[in-house]
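Example (one chain per record):
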Amino acid sequence: MGDLAQRAGVLPPEATGLIGRRQEVSQTRRLLRQGRLVTLTGTGGIGKTRLALCVGAGMRRSFRDGVRVVDLAQLGDDGLIAEAVVEALGIRDVSSRPALEVLQDHLSRMRLLLILDNCEHLLEGCAELVGRLLEAAPGLRILVTSRESLGVVGETLLEVPGLSVPDLDSPLRLRSLARVEAVSLFTERAASVVADFRLTTATARSVAQICRHLEGIPLAIELAAARMRTLPPEELLERLEDRFTLLVGGSEGAMPRHRTLRATIDWSHDLCSPQERLLWSRLSVFSGSFDLEATEEICSTQGIPRTEVLDLITNLVGKSILLSLGERGPVRRYRLLETLRQYGQEQLAASGTEETLRERHCDWYQRLAEETEAESNGQDQQSWLAHVHADLANYRAALDHSLSRPGQARNALAIAADLWTFWLAAGAFTEARRWLDRALVQEMQDSPQRAKALWVLGWFMAEQGDTAPALQVLAQAREVADRVGDRMAQAWVTTCTAQAVLFHGDVAGAVRLHHEGMEKHRALRDPMGTSLALIGLAYAASLHGDPRAAGFAEQLLAHSEEIGNPWVRSYGLWIMGQELRRQGRMSEALGFFRDSLRFQRAFGDRLGTAYCIETLAWGAGDEGDHGKAAQLLGLAQSLWRSVGASVSRYGHILPPHEHCAAQARDALGEAAYLEAFAQGEALPLDAAYAFGEQDGAPSAASPGPVPADRR
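Predicted structure:
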């Protein structure tokens, strides 16, 4: 697609076919039939030009006078736009009339599709031209490519997304992987420079990761594929971190500004005002997405007043530098594509202000983590969980920054420990432990932060079955809490120790310690501590056959209603179901299990789901449905594994688990048992929730008290 053909206004013969884009092509055609002006927007290198040319080629027959293309990239003056269009249309007019007037007269009688390519640096001139031409020529349709809207009345915008990329969490099968748009483009371009290149089982994962890293940006993918002359996919993947020095070259026919990824981004950077460039560089401190409040807190320093941040963000969205992700709960979130973020990081580093911005970023997310823990007890828990999920990459960046700077590990202790309710609800125990381990090694001095980090670490160690080392860590936490006089930490150490003791198999000891912990939390008016102590107390009592178990479960459900915490309620429902199952009332228990799973699904709590499925397996075994029991045990196994846990390390559930498995083996035979277990193990997560449903099962959404004859 060289300059010459486009400047002559003729649709160029495609040197390479368009990969994918079937939906975007169809949508653009539809919009052009419905309206007269469509603008394709999107970041540099996303494929706007190629999409426009493909649409034009497919619509030739719809326009009596054909399709003409005008590339405006090389123009630096609004006054030359009309002349460029005149030239592209092949108009020969030797009069002294202004070019715009010539165009209006010529096009007034024509039925034509005009493609104006690369308009972002000439917005005012293009808007003026387009408005005048559409007014003068009723048979004219105009397709524009620009990183920013023209702002003309009647304009329809279509943002061009990246190509589809592989799902790295799913099995990579060659046939389906080859059909993914980004992979298809990479494979085709790689084969053009390495004749014998093929997508194989050996290269599939590397190619998939490359395409994922490059976020489906066609230009980036093409430039990466060009490097296949000298680098195999595995090495290319390793070097992508330095993509700006790596991705150079490309086809000789490409425009100069498209020969390197840097040139493409430089082009966008040059089109920004000084303040927009400054904000772009500062936004690079964010990882993942961010909202307006965070941007104002972190980026509104020297050179950018807080009052101007919103307008600057709006401008960057308009220039396709920032992606607007739409509403996420009550706020709108934004994101820089990784390629543009890395470019911004280079600019930030060159400015000498990077460390200051990273400190501000870390301080903001430390404060946010502290607020997050308080909010985790609120009624709108799903919104809270979604908000923390949205900022997770930023919390990780803040943690990493604190741990990479001398003397700042206490900040990391605070962030990692304050996020513990999120780690718990999300089942991210292994990640929580990793951050806490790193911070505790660096920050050895006694403090409330260290005491809290120790008991949080002990909790997650116990939850993952490492009970003996968990008890050692919790003993350290008690010593630190006693030395600094932290009553809240002392209460939590008691509750966490009770949990570790339960997992170690001492159910009676767990009942005693959980009861003690519950009283301490209540005295401190700590709703979350009271909740978890009650959960542990009710479950341990049920496992122990304690006649108070149903009463404790009722207290837990009443407490969850009082504090408005649906996540806590999900555990109350599960434990009530467990107690009814233990009493031989499985038909009633199913309703509680079903509603517990409904809540667990809403929160994505795999640990709670694993407990519920495990208990359902025991119930199936109690009722003689050993095939179903074996399948449920297999599904539970995959859930335990997904949170880094193992039944073999859980002393509190190992006895009933082994009893259920032994019964199923005896009833089915070893081969049939293993087959059913494997079937369950291979099921997707959604199957866990389906198993909690049963026609006619009573709903426990608003359960009343358990009758006295069950206590």
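Caption: The chain has a mean pLDDT of 87.
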